[in-house]
Amino acid sequence: MASEPVELPDDALAEVLQRLPPHILAETRRVCKAWHDAIDDRLRGSLLSRSVRGIFINFSGQYFSEFFSRPSTGPAIDGGFDFLPCMGVEVKDHCDMGVKVKDHCNGLLLCRESSYRALPCPREYVVNPATRRWARLPKRPPPLMPGFDHTAHLAFEPAVSPHYQVFLIPRVPWRLPSDGESGDDDDNPLLELEWPPASYLIDVFSSVTQRWDTTTFLREGEAAGIVADMQLDWRYDPSLYHAVYWQSALYIHCQHGYLMRMSLSDHSYRVIKLPGAGGLIVYSNHHLGRSSQGVYCAILDGSILDGSKRLQVWYLSESCGRIEWVLKHDTRLKTVYAQ
């Protein structure tokens, strides 16, 4: 007579399951409730990519993200998107559809369909390349402020929750339309409003509710300027401006030399001047990043007289109730090859 199967203790079960590759581990969540709970409670971090076979690069003027890799002897994650609907066989044959990585956070990618031809409503996805699992985002709501644009940023902390959020941050366009009365673009009353506003309305998608909802963030401290100061240079490239997520706060690199720190715990935000920013101009040579210690900003200045470039790395200190940039590195890089 066959005996009843013996259930493994939770620790032993987790020890066995964590030896599986991430994409297989994700599938085993469906085996039974015990395995589902063990993976979500103990192995959530194992579902994320610790090692990728290469890097994604968005070249200026290119419609698709390029993935660069080299052979690896250890386990790694392939960066291909062949599992997405827009990368199916029938689409690949046309060679004019692809994917562009718009943002990333702790192993998740925010991607958007891209094409050489205009797409009326490109689909957006949140993708985990480790598990090859993806979710399509609902259509974006229209900008809350007419005439404005918005950029999307991803917030995800697997140590806290398996769920993620996508934030649509309003952005002042290159030029606002006229108010409809005078016909003069410079007479638009919006130009005199504070920016960012004291009460900031943000559309947020949550993987919990599976919908876009409007959330109000209240500003602490002063604004960066007025809307008229923020109208963009026509050369503005949104792909050069990024955000990082650190300890329940989203740090967004905005145009014209400032950083916006959005606290997701109390829905407040603060404007922080970027290091080396002397005024309200477009600062595309600032590059935001994050390490295990916090938020960093790298500044790469143009060529100096001897052909080298100056590289500075600043750390954002938020201790003792003060927020200030601390210079960590200041060096010069010699140009090996210049075209």
Descriptive account of the structure:
- The protein is mainly beta and 339 residues long.
- It is built from five helices and 20 strands.
- The protein has an eight-stranded mixed β-sheet, with no helix packed on it.
- Helix 1 crosses helix 3.
- The longest helix has 10 residues.
List descriptors.
single chain; 339 residues; 8-stranded mixed β-sheet; 5 helices; 20 strands; 10% helix; globular; F-box-like_dom_sf; F-box domain-containing protein; F-box_dom
Low-confidence stretches at least 5 residues in length (pLDDT < 50)?
89-94
Mean pLDDT: 79
> What is the tally of helical segments?
5
The portion of residues forming beta strands comes to 35-45%
Supply Rg: 23 Å
Main beta-sheet strand count, sense and barrel state: 8 strands, mixed
Shape: globular
Number of strands: 20
